[in-house]
Amino acid sequence: MSRFLSTVARRTEPYVPGEQLNQPDIIKLNTNENPYPPSPKVLEAIQAELNGNTLQRYPSPTVDPLRHAIAETYGLTKDHVFVGNGSDEVLAFSFMAFFEPGKTIKFPEISYSFYPVYSKLFNISFEKVPLNADFTLPKKQFYNSPGGVILPNPNAPTSIYAELDVIEDILRNNQDQVVIIDEAYIDFAGPSAMKLIDRYPNLLVIQTTSKSRALAGLRVGFALGQPELIAGLTRIKDSFNSYTIDRLAMAGATAAFVDHAYFSESINKVIRTRESTVHTLEELGFEVLPSDANFVFVKPLHKDAKVLYQQLKNRGILVRHFDQADIREYLRISIGTDEQMNTLFEVLKQLT
Ligand code: PMP
What we know:
binds 4'-deoxy-4'-aminopyridoxal-5'-phosphate; five-stranded mixed sheet
C-alpha cells in the first residue's frame, strides 16, 4: 500500500456492493431492490420540482418538508427525524455520533457487512456476536455492551425478524449506550421499534426509502429517535455538508410518504410473492429460513451454493452469494415480480 496514505486510508477496507450488470434482460435478485416502480406521485413531484427551475438554488439545509412528512406518517414530530443520503450515510453519521474509539460495540456475526467497514473507518473496536444455531438473536449476548449495539431487524442476510420484546430487553440492558436498530426491511415485517422511542432515550431506529418505497436510486434514508439523539446526528451532518439531500430527492421522497395507498399495495404484492416463493423453493429442494423481508435466505440441499450462484449468473439471473465461512452454503434471493420468480423456478428446475 502507498506510503503516502494516512493511517485512516490504510485501515479502511471499502465495502463491496452487490454486482450491477448492465444487460437489459438480466433478472436482478441480488441487492434487495423493489421490483415495482415508485409511486407515480413521486415522478410527478420530481417533474414539478424541475419545472419550477429551482436547480440553481441550494436545497433546504434542514430538509423540513420531508422530515415533516415522515413525522406525520409515524405520529412523531420533525425533531424526532433525521434525513441522509441513503441509510448508509445515516449509519455512518450514527457511528460518528454515538460510538467511540476504545469502547467495543457489538453486532451479530452474520449481519450487514457495512458495520465492520464503518467500525474500521472510525477506529471503533467491535465484537461479532455469533447467532443461535437457527440464526435467531442470542439477546443476552448483547446486554451491557461497553460501546453500544447495532443490529438489523429483520436481519440481513438471514431475513429473520426479532420480536419487539427481544429488542426491548436489549434496550433495557444497555441504558447507558446507544442501541441502533437498522430497519431497512421493516415494512415487510412486524412492528417497528419506533414504538419504543418514547420510553428509550438510547434507541435510534434507522430506515430507508430504498426498499419498501422503491427509491434505491434516489438515496434517501432516515433516523428516528428522541430529539437529543437527532440533534447529535445533525451536529455531525453540519460538519460535513449542511445540505444533505438534493432538491429532486427531497421532492420525490416527500411524495412517497404521502401516497400511502400505493405504498401498502406494493408491499402486499412483494409479501404475496415471497410466500409463494418460499413454498416453491422448498418443493425444489431448498431449506428456506423464515423470511420477514423482501428476500429469502436459502440453502440448496442437493447442490453447492456457489456453483449454483455462478450457473444462475450464466443464465442471466443474479442472486447473492457470500464468501463468509458460516453462510457459504446459502444464497440470498431478492423477491422480484411473479414473472421473474417463475423464470427463476424454471431455470432452477433445470439446474438442481
Ligand atoms: N441496512 C441494511 C441492513 C441493508 O441491507 C441496506 C441495503 N443494502 C442498507 C442498510 C442501506 O440501504 P440504503 O443506503 O439504500 O438506504
